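Usage example:
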Amino acid sequence: MAEYFGVKVEDIFNTMQERFRPEGAQGVDASFGYDITGEGKWKLTVRDEKMTIEQTGDLSGCAVVTVTDGETFVGVNIGKVDGMSAFSSGKFKAEGDLGALGKTAKMFRKFVPLKKEMSIRDYLMDMFGTVASRFKAGAAEGVDVVFAFDLGGEYGGKWSVIIKDKTCRVIDRIEGKPTVKLEFMDAKDYVDFSLGKIDAQSLLAAGRAAVAGEINLALKWAEFFDKYVDPMGSGEKEQELLVLKKTISVEQRYATGPVMGKFLNGLKDKKIIGLKCSGCGKIMLPAVEVCADCRVRASEWVEVGPKGQVRYMEYVYYASPDPLTGETRETPYGMLNILLDGCKGNETFAHLVRRDQIDRIQNGWNEASGTRVRPVWSKNRTGSIHDIEYFEIDE
Amino acid sequence: MGKRVAICAVSQIKMDSDYWYMRFQNMLLPCLESIVEQTGVTFDLEKGIRDIITNSDDVFDARTISNNGVTDVVGAHFRGEEKMAQEGINGLGYAMASILSGHDDVILFMGHCKESQTENRLMNTNLAFDPFYTRPLGLDFLNASAFQAREYMKKSGVTDEHLAKVVVRSRKNAKKNPNAIESKQVTLKEVMKSPLLADPIRQLHQWPVTDWAFGMLLCCEERAKEFTDNPVWLTGFGNCMDSFFLGDKDLTSNFSLKKASERAYKMAGIKDPKRDFDVVELKDLFAYQLPMWAEGVGIVDENKGGEWIDGDGPDKQNVNLSGGMLSGSPLLLGGVARTIECVLQLRGEAGKRQVKGAKRAIAQGTYGAAGQHQAVVILEK
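Running the assembly step on the lines above writes:
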């Protein structure tokens, strides 16, 4: 199996059991399919806060099937690929209930790739192995030089980095007379120097390193090559990078004042009431104290709707979760801006549309009328925007 | 001294311990209407208000990103609005910078705070601490101030009786201030017997929970006459932010207040703070802060806070004739409330507490734990 970012696709699945968080799987009773192109298919089943994972050709009965390639799958899991951009570019697809897919995020601890220790020899191989890919051809116009490295000690060796005709190649020996030659008594010093752990000045002063040939050229190395990036990261142990969970909650009450209060009480009585500006006649909906355009208090209450026509509707596939519970509403769903009867222009009111009707909604635009809709009132009304469950087609 | 900035008008609603029947929009609107009525200012894009500074903090508004509800009621629709969540007195500094830099001639400055909406007032100031180390330990402005109070009182010879005197005097002054919400008269004994909240701070030593909103119109010197016959000049401003972690600073050094004062005095040409002010308003969230901030702004010698109270210093120097924070002002806006009190004094509109012929005043505001942030404004007639 291929490795992506040093991780195999099966590593992700094989560690699911140990990464499983029963507390994140409360109330989940579903199967989730994974179809990883060229790698295989896996089926995750979650029930009673327990899980099983199997590699299988049969993904029937899954609430949602994730279809993607190995690189994207691993990348998203280890945080090397941004999930949202993979999703919007189509590299990461989900067939079925997207809301269900969202739940899987809470069921598992993040996958952390195992880190292998790197020896001095590994580092040297990696450093010289990546020289060509770090070469900045644009900065080497007319440059014809050879950097030679003579690194001593147990793990040492000899390398030459040859720049000519805006190309760069590396050989594992020193030939003829290089333009500049860097000698390190101990290859470990060179590795530490390249990783920024030790500075050249002190190595030179201590006689542990020497430069021969065009010394100034040695200083120009950074102009020709991107900095070497330590594949082991900053050297921090993974366990020291903690993620702290914080939920901030302060008991507060919110005083609505008379205007907002009257509007919310109206909803309780199945009435939608707005305030009309005495200057420009605009209706503020929901009702607010002042007309922002005219900077005057609005005082004339008018009842509008409750039926109206759709001005704008949108399809939402990726829903914002509730900040406290993390629950997301089922997708896709439709958000509406409705021009309620008695309103004009942009005096629209925002709400939701009945989910099974979203494909039948027409937007109103200029002369064209939008689909006629009516509110479906909640049985238990408390003076909140949810006193209207949603709008449905008025037929 | 450079050019001056005019405060053309101030407005406010009465302070209240619980405006349960108003949301903040209802509190701000009358303040805006009063400014328009007093000055005749318009929102004309050539000659009127184009830039507004607003001051609020989510934590008091019982909703997140609460300042999105402010714009329409302060007339900022299609205008510039700078939103500030910091002790309101800094808005005067921003207004001053805006006008003196030539960015705009006229600035409307509006703010509100509803301390009443939180179940427990300590929850608000607990949130001011970092969420990992000190917030979980329960630090809030009350117990952080107690650290400071203990050390300061020792250093400056301030006793429990001195603090009681500060409270009794505040209540006495508050009687002459129709805007004060805490004017019930108390005796020294009552104060000294009130329960300890965090030693040495007692129940009666702290400012009362307050809801309040204000408005202010500022403009450049040349245009002041368009809006008022009685301008008050803002001639100095200085502020300073000390270390965030309580233990990283010397709690009794008054470092940030001294720096803030120094900057404001330099700008306004103040030579001797002990003599140069006719009116002084200090943000005494807790009783011990009255003598401590008085030392910080230099109207009292260092370490002489106790003697100052014994010698009736606060009365002789007209300090907090309004009753100060202890008679009411919300945490977020205490410095603005102090400034507005100074403006009323300089305009000769301070009623029964009026200082005759007051020419120059200083107002101080502080935010953060135990005076972390300090700001000072100098106002002149």
